[in-house]
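Final report, closing paragraph on structural work. Over the funding period we assembled a curated collection of sequence-structure pairs, and we close with a single example.
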Amino acid sequence: MKKLTLLLTFMVTVFACATVHAQVTTDQIVTEWQRAKNFTKTYLDAMPDDGYSFKPTPEMRSFAGQMLHLTDANYFFASSVSGKASPLGKTSAEKTVEQTKAATTKAVMDSYDFVISSIQGMTPAQLQESMKFGGKDLPKAIVLGKAFEHQTHHRGQTTVYLRLKGVTPPPEML
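Its predicted structure, as stored:
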């Protein structure tokens, strides 16, 4: 019995320590978003000016449209999680920003800055607060993870746009 109790105590201790160490800090989340911002900037820089209006097929978004959709989502997720009002208000970057290299790049970078500053303004306790998202109660940190996945997904889609324009996509920035 003593061996079983000792084993269970050991397993609970290991699990508790692993859980504590598995929690990501606010600084680590910010670092990952800064990396994502820099990586996205390399994609924006790689596409030639005339490629911003490029659509692989008529029903797809343009390259700028993909990046501005990413922008709208960055504002939506960060605003939802932090409670900070989106600088876009109820407008959409995808529908209002001129789809040029300069205007798109500025809008996208501004959205990353908003995400990063929103996260920096949150405490670890706030990141663990639950919120309704997609019909579920989720910790805000998990919702930020979904935001990160979304921007990664749309940036990744633009790899094909670059290839079709004869541009080698930027290398990974892991």
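The radius of gyration is 20 Å. The CA atoms of residues 88 and 144 lie 19 Å apart. We thank the funder for supporting this effort.
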